[in-house]
Amino acid sequence: MTDTVYAPSPPTAAPATIEKVSIIISKGSL
Amino acid sequence: MANGARAEGIEANLFFTFFGLDAIHKARNEHIKLATVGNPGLHFATMAGGLPGVSTVMTHYMNHKMEKLDIPSIPEFIEMIADTGAGLYACKASVDLFGLEKNDFIEQVQDIITVGEFYEKAAGGQIIFT
Predict the structure, then answer these.
(1) Which pairing describes strands B11-16 and B87-91: parallel, antiparallel, or unpaired?
(2) Which of A19, B6, B49, B84 is disulfide-compatible with B37, CB 3.0–4.6 A?
């Protein structure tokens, strides 16, 4: 039986550059 | 977030759905209130948040703080975001549900589109739900 590891895994690839975001707004309050 | 995205040169499209439509509604976007019921971020009892006038007082307080910090009001902010070239779209299903039409919205709203059409615009990018 292996122990559960809760530490985050190291990134496997460099983060991609974000070129586009689409934002959904569903609330009508501050 | 849209404003920040545009400042970074990131393409941004905004899709207003259900009660989010108030932010682009000509008659309502100057009267957006602070939700005081069921808002754990305010750190007071839910029952207190439901008392008459509490939402109005808290909204005035928040608007005052925003003004002091030179943060634009919601209508000004939406206009600024549109001026940066971001796309503003209203959800067709919600528009139909609330019996609204294109004339009810501020001129910066480019179109009333379906969820499918919005996903086509969103293709290849990141989607943020607020």
Answers:
(1) parallel
(2) B49
CB B55 within 8 A of CB B36: yes
A16 touches B at CB < 8 Å: no
CA distance readout (Å), B6 to A12, A28, B13, B23: 28, 22, 10, 19
Using CA atoms, how far residue B125 sits from A18, B4, B11, B116, in Å, is 7, 16, 9, 15
Other residues' Cβ atoms within 10 Å of the Cβ of residue A17: 7
pLDDT value at residue B15: 97
Q: Which residue has the tokens 């934002």?
A: A23
**B100 at interface of A, judged by CB pairs closer than 8 A:** no
Interchain proximity A28–B28, CB inside 8 Å: yes
The values of phi and psi at residue B68, to 5°, are: -60, -35
Q: What's the token pair of residue B121?
A: 């615009």
Q: Is B81 exposed, middle or buried (0-12, 13-18, 19+ CB in 10 A)?
A: buried
The type of residue at B16 is F
CA dist list (Å): B24 to B21, B50, B70, B123? 6, 26, 21, 24
